[in-house]
Amino acid sequence: MKILGIDTSCDDTCIAVLEIRNSKLEILSNIVSSQVKLHAKYGGVYPSLAKREHIKNLPLVFKKATKGVSVKNIELIGVTVGPGLEPCLWQGVNFAKDLAERLKKPLISVNHIEGHILVNFIDKFKISNLKSQIFPAICLVVSGGHTQLVLMKDIGKYKLIGETRDDAAGECFDKIARILGLGYPGGPVIAAEAAKFQVSSSKFQIKLPRPMMSQKNYDFSFSGLKTAVLYLVKQLTINNEQLTINQKREICAESQQAIIDILIFKTLKVAKNFKVKSIILGGGVAANSELRKQFGEKIKKEIPNTKYLIPDAKYCTDNGVMIAIAAYFNQKNNNWEKIEVNANLRI
Ligand code: KG4
Ligand code: ZN
Questions:
Q1: Pairwise CA distance, residues 12 & 209, whole Å
Q2: What CATH number was assigned to the domain covering residues 133-310?
Q3: For a Cys staple, 15 with which of 81, 183, 233, 320, CB 3.0–4.6 Å?
Q4: pLDDT tens figures, 214-226
């Protein structure tokens, strides 16, 4: 069975094709056309520009993704219907509708957040005999638009138990990068600068807040962290001085660590309280190598019998594979005549 997945929820135009044959899943293509350079000058995504680029890119990305694949053999099409930027979502949905109509194949509506979770099951798509080892699980979805803790009892059975009250973790990386003049997207550049920070050459030791760590709930808040960085930078440049490169790197290292500390602390708290069997990560921020490493170490130390599922870094950021796999698990949602975009879709 060949499945095509489409995602245009934000600034990337993503199409992938995967094939499930003889109990094996193979990724035939995974094309992501990034608009990063276009949006960089705005320090974030500019929706009407992103929409225009999706219109232009979709046919080109489709052609690349289906090179060497007989299109008429595609049996299932999945498309993100939300959450995301409404004008962008519609481009993917309209493209997918036309395709499904032309090929006379089922079209499955996919929740982007579920895609970020289910991409962890690429190598476990025959999940039936693994269920008792994996569920219940706690999923931490950390992207540019979302920071959510989702209790997962099975594939398709989710309960949102915590989320950010203001900025998402990825948004926090992006805003701090903008304050430091490091460009967009912030996550990868902050991670790279943090890795170069040399403790010995620093004249000051900064300490940033870890908002909501001590509160009993499972929610997050990241806007205070961004504001703390803003004030710190103002204070350090009060006499029109420029930040030194090592000062910038120290701020990157401490900001990244603050975000990591909060994410790990809250997730482990839920994992312990709900006695879950696994911790599942997803979303662009899960590509962060320090986060991946420290999460693994903490789980091993504090709850060693808990499984730790995390996608390959290339499947953490938005991609079509996650939508195709989610379509595979949601084949019953074949409702393409009624398919609608919902920018605020919840899990
Ligand atoms: O999941 P994603 O590709 O798109 C959304 O659904 O939002 O996530 C994008 C977010 C951006 O905020 C970006 O800065 C962040 O993921 N990100 C990272 C890394 N790579 C991407 N954050 C931290 N470290 C990274 N290596
Ligand atoms: Zn995403």
A1: 32
A2: 3.30.420.40
A3: 320
A4: 899 999 999 999 9
